[in-house]
Amino acid sequence: MGKKAKNRSVIRTGSRRLTDDTGDNLGVGGDFSVNINQVSLELEAEIRKEEKMRISEDFGTGADLLREALDISSTLEEGVSAIVDDSFTKCFNKATPTVWNFNWYLFPSWLVGLIVRHLILFPLRLVFLLVTFFTFIFLFSLSRMLMPKCSFKLRLEKAIVRSIAFCWVASWSAVITCHGPKPVASKGRVWVSNHTSMVDWLVLSQVTPFATVMQKHPGWLGVIQTYIMDGFGCIYFNRKESKDREKVALRIKDYVKNDGKFPLLIFPEGTCVNNRYSTMFKKGAFELDCAVCPIAIKYNKIFVDAFWSSRQQSFTMHLWELMTSWAVVADVYFLEPQYKQVGETSIEFASRVQKMIAKKARLKVVPWNGMLKYLSPSPKLCEQKREL
After folding, report:
1. Which long-range contacts (CB under 8 A, 24 or more apart) does 152-161 make?
2. Residue 284: how many CA atoms within 13 Å on its side-chain side?
3. Crossing angle for the helix pair 379-387 and 73-89, nearest 10 degrees?
4. In this structure, are residues 206 and 158 in contact, taking their beta carbons and an 8 Å threshold?
5. Cα atoms found within 13 Å of the Cα of residue 251, Cβ hemisphere only
6. How far apart are CA 263 and CA 259, in angstroms?
7. What region does 366 belong to: left with phi over 0, alpha with psi -120 to 50, or beta?
8. Which of 85, 97, 186, 305 is the most buried if burial means most Cβ atoms within 10 Å?
9. Which of 371, 343, 342, 341 is nearest to 353 (CA)?
10. Prediction pTM value
11. Would you place residue 48 in the very low, low, confident or very high pLDDT band (cuts 50, 70, 90)?
């Protein structure tokens, strides 16, 4: 009998032999059907295994280094977060006072200055402020209660408000230099300014009394807001009340269109910044369909830093710091009114006005929302993260 020819194909990979016999008899005394797909999978697995072994033997050190170098996503994320946090917190850091009493012949001069400022100037300034402030407050209350509405009453109240602001500014021996035309109250206009401290309103109101949009404060400052500043149209908000934003926006629109007794002052940054940077301007003041009049305030830190960090000191301590300095020096720039251009969005309009103010006051524009400082982690935690 002739034997059936066997068609045998042999595939070798490495040291292993895979035999594919297409005949019925495999020489083991039984029948077996070969699964071609299974053979292919085994072949591919063997090839991958040998390739990995080859790479591991030839480039083991380099592969490990590459793997470690690529596995740094979390480190990069923490590093970028630290950089962002550092650039953000710079907007709210007070200037470090220059130390000049470091030797024996300068120390006596510094000590004399310290005694004069705290034991002579401060008591005189405090007495002057209390006497003049309460006198004008009394006159303002009388005019509100006794005088009928008329043009003379409005002029008198403006003069009293301006005098009150002047008393505060004089208690710091402030030197305020104004540039440009002074604001004139009129409907259909709103004034916007960079914001360094609550004393910004006093600095501007001793030139022209402003109504303003500000946060409602507790304590003696809240009493003044309620019983005095309410009398000339100031608008208040509470950061903790989410519904306040809509109410304030409606009141601002109504005031700009229907009330021109006192010019309305808005601080678009929404928080105090250290007069070296300018954080993002909110678009609310630029959606009123009216003229926007920019004001740039630049404080000179030669005697004192006028920046108020409400998270680090109370407003009372901030005033004490100003009143125990030699003087507060500032320049105020009243710029030309600006109008929204054709095709310009409110955000673009706000950004354009912000750059005008920053250029005049020599501030650095940053893209951060200043309100994030109320949500940012504590500086101590950030410093610990940097040290890790």
Report:
1. 154/261, 157/231, 157/232, 158/209, 158/232, 158/262, 160/136, 161/205, 161/209, 161/232, 161/262
2. 18
3. 140
4. no
5. 16
6. 9
7. beta
8. 305
9. 341
10. 0.72
11. low
